[in-house]
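Researcher: Re-running this chain for the archive, since the previous output was lost when a drive failed. Same request as before.
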Amino acid sequence: MTVRFRNHAVAFAAFLVIGTSSVPARPFRFDDLARVQRVGNFSLSPDGQWIAYGVAVPNVLANRSASAIWLVSTGGGPPRRLTSGEKA
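Model: Regenerated structure tokens:
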């Protein structure tokens, strides 16, 4: 399995988990979007054992997002937060 394929597979899996976790009874609105954490920027380690990804938490009042880098094993297990900050 190529690195590029794994990156796409991980991104697709994250989309499925996040994008289909619940079906709203009404249309999706801006205030709903403002509460959603954004997951992206996936990177697979050279040995294929770790995935690093970013999670951004929006702050509508401040008009910015706070970002953190997370790390998870491709073999499973809980993710670890590596960084935290007030800015993207």
